[in-house]
Structure formats: C-alpha cells, structure tokens
Task: inverse folding
C-alpha cells in the first residue's frame, strides 16, 4: 500500500511540481523526545503551568514539543521547516519544491502523513517578550478602585452585554492575559487609542507567524479594529471591554493570499498563547470554503473534530484557556453555516446582533455538523464602534467585533472570580444569556449579561431543572412585578433580587407548586436588577429586569 501511495504522490508532484510548495507533516509519536512530562518548565512558562495546576489539569504527552530528532531528519532532505511546529498535532509545516525530498520524507518511518496545503476562503470580512503582568497598570483616567468610563459611541456595545457594570465594580481585566489571533495590528504601536496599553506595558509580546518576525504593526487593519473593542481607551469616543487586561498580539492570517496554511498558523498561535500563559484567546478568523471548490470544507467537516484549527481550539480548552471565535459572516450566503474553529466544542462561538438585539443577517448559523448549538452566544456586530488602522473611530459590521467585545468581558468576569476554571466562566456566561432556557442556532444561548454572570458564579455549576421554571413580568416595569414559578413539594424556594452592583436587596420566601405572586416596590430607583430563583440552595432560574420610572 505504501508503494502505491508513493507512486501517486510522485505523479502528483512531477505533474505539477510548483503548484504547491508548502506541506503539513504529521509524525507517528514522540517516543525519543528529550522532553519529559516531569519537567514542563523546559517548554512551558511558569504561568502556563500555574494555569493548569489551578484548574487541576495534568501535563500530558500532548504538551511535549515535537521530537527535534524527527525535525532534523526532515531538514536533512533539503526541505525548510516553516516558522513553527505543532505539539498538539505532533506535526510541522515545511516548504520545498523538490519532488525527491518529498518522497524521502514520506519514506521516513516516523512520518504518519504528508499533505499539501491547498487554497481556502479568506477569513472574516466586514461592510515573546514577557509572561509576567505588571502589578499596577495606570490608565490615563486615573488609578482608582472604581472607574466610571465615558464610553462615547461605544456605550451601546459595552452596555448591551453589561460589561460596564463590571467596570463600575472595579474589574477592567487586570491580571488576565488575552491572546489575539488575527491578520496583523497595523499602527497599534502609534495610535492614540492604544496609548494606555503601550505606556502601561500591557502588550506583553508580539509575533507574526506568517512572516516569522516579531513585528506585527506594519500590516493588517482587521486585527487593529478587533483589538480596539477590548483594549482601546479613548474617553468620550471608545472604551474597550478589557482596557486593563494584558495582550499578546499574534498575526496568523495573511489577508493577501488564500492558503490553508493559515489554519496551521492558527494552531501555532494558539500553542504559543498556551505556552506563555494566556488565559483567553480572541480570534476573529474563520475557515470554511476554498477558492478551489474541490478543496472546500463541507458542512460535515464542521463537527469540531475535523479541521486542524478546530482540533487545536479543543486543546485550548483542555489546557485551561477560554477561546472566543467568531461564528462567521456567511449567514446570508449559500454557505450559511458557522466556520471553523467556531465549530469546536468547549469554546464560545460568537454571533452578531444589532444594538436592539436583532440578529444580523450576515451572522453565520448553526448547528455544528454533529448537532450542537452554534453559535454559543451573540453580541453587537452591526455598526460596532472600532478604531481603524489610521487611528479613526468608526463603525464596522461583522461577527469579528462581537467576538472581542465578549472576550474582553470574560477577562473582567474572570478577574472577579480568579479561582474559577475556564469552564465555570464559560458556563456562567451561557447561563446569563438571554436565551439560556431556549437556545437556538441563530443567536445560540443569546446575548450574555456579564453582571448577571458575576452573580451566578456565587452558585457555580447549577443547571435549570426540568421540573422548575421562573419568569418575571412585565419587563420593563415600574417596580410592580409578577413572579411566576414552579417547584416540587418538600423543597424550599426563594426569589432573590439584586441591584446592578450585585448587592442583594430583597429575598422572598415562596411555597411549592405552580404559583404567581406580586411585589410592589415602586420606591426602587430606575435601573437594571437581577432576579434569581433558588430551590434548596441551588439557583434554578434567573432573569434580568429593567425598572423604568
């Protein structure tokens, strides 16, 4: 069989020797690697190891680097190894136009497979320096325990997911690291909106996995805009959702060309993020259909287990990171499904809505090919306020911008509960979302409410019981509310009401059965409140309410 495969490869190479020069090589094992599970500091930063330890995640063979001896033998054929190697996939990317070199590589006993890197459709379109975080980072608005930002035009997108509430509670992303994987970050090193993250050393490192250089500031305006929705600090114009988080800026996408090697770049970026100790990945890239129709990802591939970037996204969850990936902008096209890596499980795929919460027609739809709800959540991606690469504050459309808004909110939330795992943070975000009780494949679990997530994390890992329900009407109201609920006899039920800061302001004991009760609290001030229904000490239902005077 191997001779037949070799003959086929030889025919393909000699008939079109210069059509493809980049290849993906997967090895069979790591049996002779000099690295060991017992000495992870040889290949992981202390912060990366701590992230695993804090979440009870063991170091495994997947964490070991690719065997350098195997790489050396590939190099001996005359092939050139590109800028990275994948520990999770046990693979490397090479470039060569020598057919004999490819045959020699395929004959190596530790080479499991060799495949050319074909063309793919472009990613999202729109209408290592240090792993230590500074203990103090002063924003130009002052180093106070509670900041009230002047969001300007960005208020709607921040407030829609209630991240402004977390800001007012004193959480701005301090202590959390976000790795941003995109097409480059043109002029982020000079634009005024990013002066805070520059002056306070919040940019921990940069790398261009396309060109193999450190500088990411001379190309790619898309990454600049996406970063602005998390990190910008331009009072009265735009405030990002995590202006005091720290960032790694990683270029994995080459906008000018359309090769599937960018999925390999994405894997390399994700592994780098792991190794330096990032907590969160925000990526506004997706891969689905190819320029060469014979190479298209088909819907069946969107199962979270087929594409190389989806496999890597799953690994990010396994090592304790929380990944946010844009769902894609194909909702109104023939291919209307989510792209990859949004199809991966254990991450948060983000769809787009407008300022009123209506689904954007371009937002890609689910489910995943194996039937899971996708996207997972949705945020503002219609007329999102961004900073472009010329430094201007403008608006843009795309799930690209809903994604960093959500990722930045997660950094603030995780800062509030640093002992929680990535999966607990993810679950609380889903539970806080507007369609938690009835998710669909348009908005997923809906629009998250990060302030409500903050409340829910006080009682983590609770699910809504099939025997209980809870609702509040009317919403909005003037303080006169009707509560409808149901729970079983013999249980103890309580309705708890919190203000926007998370302070419990009222608790109502209720009797079992299906009942409706009323409360008249017209003295309450105008604002957002949160009601949750607790049965036997466990939260079984929640709802955000607005009191309007």
Result:
């Amino acid at each position: 069989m191997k001779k037949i495969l070799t003959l086929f490869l030889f025919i393909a190479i000699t008939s079109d020797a210069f059509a493809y020069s980049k290849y993906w090589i997967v090895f069979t094992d790591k049996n002779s690697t000099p690295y060991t599970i017992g000495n992870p500091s040889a290949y992981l930063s202390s912060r990366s190891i701590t992230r695993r330890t804090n979440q009870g995640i063991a170091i495994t063979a997947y964490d070991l680097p690719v065997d350098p001896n195997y790489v050396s033998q590939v190099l001996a054929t005359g092939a050139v190894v590109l800028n990275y190697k994948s520990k999770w996939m046990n693979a490397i990317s090479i470039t060569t136009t020598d057919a004999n070199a490819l045959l020699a590589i395929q004959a190596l006993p530790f080479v499991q497979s060799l495949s050319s890197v074909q063309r793919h459709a472009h990613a999202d379109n729109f209408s290592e320096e240090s792993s230590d975080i500074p203990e103090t980072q002063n924003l130009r608005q002052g180093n106070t325990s509670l900041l009230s930002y002047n969001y300007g035009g960005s208020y709607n997108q921040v407030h829609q997911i209630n991240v402004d509430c977390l800001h007012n509670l004193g959480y701005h992303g301090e202590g959390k690291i976000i790795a941003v994987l995109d097409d480059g970050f043109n002029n982020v090193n000079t634009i005024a909106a990013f002066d805070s993250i520059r002056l306070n050393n919040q940019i921990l490192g940069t790398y261009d996995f396309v060109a193999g250089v450190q500088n990411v500031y001379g190309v790619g305006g898309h990454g600049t805009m996406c970063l602005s929705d998390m990190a910008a600090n331009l009072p009265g114009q735009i405030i990002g959702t995590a202006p005091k988080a720290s960032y790694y800026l990683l270029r994995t996408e080459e906008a000018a060309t359309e090769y599937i090697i960018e999925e390999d770049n994405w894997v390399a970026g994700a592994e780098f993020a792991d190794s330096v100790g990032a907590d969160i990945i925000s990526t506004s890239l997706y891969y689905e259909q190819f320029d060469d129709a014979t190479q298209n990802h088909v819907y069946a591939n969107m199962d979270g287990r087929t594409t190389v970037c989806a496999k890597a996204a799953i690994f990010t969850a396994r090592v304790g990171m929380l990944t946010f990936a844009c769902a894609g902008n194909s909702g109104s096209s023939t291919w209307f499904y989510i792209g990859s890596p949004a199809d991966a499980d254990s991450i948060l795929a983000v769809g787009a809505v407008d300022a009123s919460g209506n689904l954007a027609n371009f937002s890609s739809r689910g489910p995943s090919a194996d039937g899971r709800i996708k996207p997972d959540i949705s945020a503002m991606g219609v007329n999102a306020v961004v900073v472009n690469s010329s430094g201007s504050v403008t608006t843009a459309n795309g799930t690209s911008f809903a994604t960093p808004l959500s990722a930045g909110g997660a950094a603030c939330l995780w800062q509030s509960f640093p002992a929680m795992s990535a999966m607990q943070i993810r679950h609380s975000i889903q539970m806080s979302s507007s369609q938690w009780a009835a998710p669909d494949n348009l908005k997923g679990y809906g629009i998250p409410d990060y302030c409500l997530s903050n409340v829910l994390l006080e009682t983590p890992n609770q699910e809504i019981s099939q025997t209980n329900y809870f609702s509040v009407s009317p919403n909005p109201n003037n303080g006169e509310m009707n509560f409808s609920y149901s729970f079983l006899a013999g249980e103890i039920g309580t309705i708890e009401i919190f203000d926007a800061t998370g302070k419990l302001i009222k608790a109502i004991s209720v009797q079992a059965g299906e009942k409706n009760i009323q409360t008249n609290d017209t003295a309450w001030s105008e604002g957002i409140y949160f009601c949750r229904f607790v049965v036997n000490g466990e939260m079984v239902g929640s709802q955000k309410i607005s009191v309007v005077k």
